[in-house]
Amino acid sequence: MRQARDRQTRDQRIERRISAASSIAMCVLTVLAQIVVTLLLTRLLRQYANIAYAALELLGIVMAINVFLRSGSPSYKLSWMCLLLVLPVSGMLLFLLWGGTHQAKTLSLKRVPPPAERESARRESESNVARLTKQDAAMGRVAAYLQKRDFLLYKNTSAKYFGDGMAFFDDLINHIQKAETYVFLEYFIIAEGKIWDRIFAALKERAAAGVEIHIIFDDFGNLTRFSDSALQALQDAGIEVQVFNPVHRYVNRIYFNYRDHRKVAVIDGYWAYTGGINLADEYANLFERFGRWKDSTVRIEGDGAWGLAAQFIQMWEMIGGTLPNEDDYYRARIAGPAGEGFCQAFIDGPLNNPDNPMEDTFLQLISASTRFLYITTPYYAVEEAMQLALCIAADSGVDVRLMVPAIPDKRYAYMVAETYWGELLSHGVKIYKYAPGFIHAKSILVDRKMALVGSTNMDYRSFQLHFECAAMMYDMPAVEELLEDMDGIMAESTPYTMEEWKKRPWYRRVVSSILKLGAIWL
C-alpha cells in the first residue's frame, strides 16, 4: 500500500515537472517566435518596401527619443534606445509587444490600497520619527522618507536576527504551532522536502484547530518544486492559497519577468519574519547546491509586525483574494514589548516605477554612512548613481565592504557583477568572496546604528521587476547581531583584489561586457 502511494506521489511529481517544463518551453518558444517574426518583417520591408522601411526607421528614432525623455531607470531606457536605433523595426515591434518601460502596468493586479491606518498610529509614527531625528539626523531622514510613502515607524518592537537557516525554521515552526488567530505566508519559493513537511504539519494542525491560514507563492519560482498534490493537500487542510502571476496566463508576453520575490511570515499580527530565506531544504543546508548556503532573516515582535501583515493583506487582495474578516481583525491582540530602538517594514514593486522606495532607501543608506558600510548581496548590477554613491562613500573615508558569493548560482550574473568591481576596488571598496559557498543574504549595515534586512538583491531585477520587502532597524540590539554575523562572513571569505580583476581572460571580459548590455533582462 505504501509503495503504491509512493509510486503515485512520484508520478504526480513527474507530471508536475512535465507541466512546468511545458509551460516554460511554451513561454520561451513564444518569445523566440515573436523575435523571429519581427526580424523577418524587418528583412521583407528592407527588400521590398524601401520607402516604408525608411519611414519606420524615422519612427524608430522618434520612439527612441520618446524613451529617452521618459522618467525611469537610465540603464533600462538605454537598452531600449540601443535596440530601437540599431534595429528600428524589430525594436519598435518588440517595444510595443513587450510594453517597454511600462510593462508592469498591464499585469492583472487590482489597484488596492494597504489597510487604512488609524489616525492615532499615524501620529505615533510622526512622533517616533521626530524622536529618532533628534537622536540621529541621518536615521531620521531615512525614516521620514519611508513614512512619507506610508510606511510607519514603530516603537514597542523587538527584533531577533537569524544568520542560520535551520535556526530560523525552528523558530518559525515554533511560533506557527502557537498561532491562535492566523498565519500569513508569502514566499517566492516553497519547495517540497524535509523543511516543508515540518511546516505543513504545523499548518495542518493549526488549521484543524480553527486558525486562519493564507499562503501566497510565486508560480514561476515553484513550477518544478511544488507539486499539484502538495497544493491539493494544502487546500484539503482548509488552507487558502493564492498563486502570484501564473505562468500559463502570460505565455504570449514576457510577464513571467514580474515575480513576487518577497519572503514574509506573520503570526497573529504579533510576530513577523522577513529576509532572504525561502521555504526550502537548501536554505537549511540539508543538501548542497552551491557549497554552503548562507542566508539571513529577521523576526519582528510587537507593534512593528503589523507593517508586514498590512503589506500581505494588500498583496492578497491585489491578486484577487478576499479575507473573511475586516482588516483590524488581523492586528495583534496584545501590546508590543518595550524594546530598544525603532522598526519600519516596507515594500516595493514594479507598479511603483519610476519611484522606487527600495532603491532610494539603498542610496540613502549609502550616503548616510560616515564610519563603515557593510553589504551582503548574491548579485550586483546597479545604476550608475548607486555605483557612484559607493565610490564616493569610500573616497570619503567610509569603510565600505561588499560580501558576495565565491560559488555563484548563476555564472552569467556573476560575470556581469565583475564588470563593476574594478571601479569599486579603485576607489577603496573592499570586496569579500564567501569561500564556503553561496551567500544569498540581502542586508546593509550602517555605522553600527541602522540596518536593512530583506529580500532585495542589488540588481535591476529586484529594483525594477520584482515585488520585494525589507525591514529597517534603527538602534536596535539586532543591529549588533547582524554585525557579528557579518564579521563571521568576512572571517570565512577571501578578499577579491584588483590584481585578480585585471587577470581575467580577454574572452571573459568581452562576454561580461556584452552580458552587461542586457543586464536589465537577465
Terminal CA distance: 46 Å
Helix amount: 40-55%
From the spread of the alpha carbons, the general shape counts as: globular
- Residue stretches low in confidence (pLDDT < 50, at least 5 long) are 11-16, 101-105
| Cα gyration radius (Å) | 24 Å
What is the averaged pLDDT score? Answer: 87
The description of the largest β-sheet is: 9 strands, mixed
Tell how many strands the DSSP assignment holds: 20
* Structure class: alpha/beta
Strand content: 15-25%
Number of helices: 18
Structure characterization notes:
With 522 residues, this protein is of the alpha/beta class. It has 18 helices and 20 strands. Strands 5, 10, 11, 13, 14, 16, 17, 19 and 20 form a nine-stranded mixed sheet that branches. Helix 1 (2-48) packs across helix 4 (88-98). Residues 11-16 and 101-105 have low confidence and may be disordered.
Summarize the structure.
It contains 18 helices and 20 strands. With 522 residues, the protein is an alpha/beta fold.
Descriptors for this entry?
alpha/beta, globular, 522 residues, single chain, 7-stranded mixed β-sheet
Topology (SSEs and partners):
Elements (H helix, E strand, L loop, with lengths): L1 H47 L1 H20 L4 H13 L1 H11 L20 H17 L1 H12 L8 E6 L2 H13 L4 E6 L6 H15 L3 E7 H4 L5 H9 L3 E5 L14 E2 L2 E5 L3 E5 L16 E3 L2 E6 L2 H14 L23 E7 L8 H12 L3 E5 L3 E2 L2 H12 L3 E7 L5 H16 L3 E5 L2 E3 L3 E4 L3 E5 L3 E2 H6 E9 L2 H15 L1 E4 L1 H5 L3 H12 L5
Parallel strand pairs: 2-3, 3-4, 5-19, 8-15, 11-13, 12-18, 13-14
Antiparallel strand pairs: 1-9, 2-6, 6-7, 7-9, 10-19, 11-16, 14-20, 16-17, 17-19
Helix pairs in contact: 1-2, 1-4, 2-3, 2-4, 3-4, 5-6, 6-12, 7-8, 12-13, 14-18
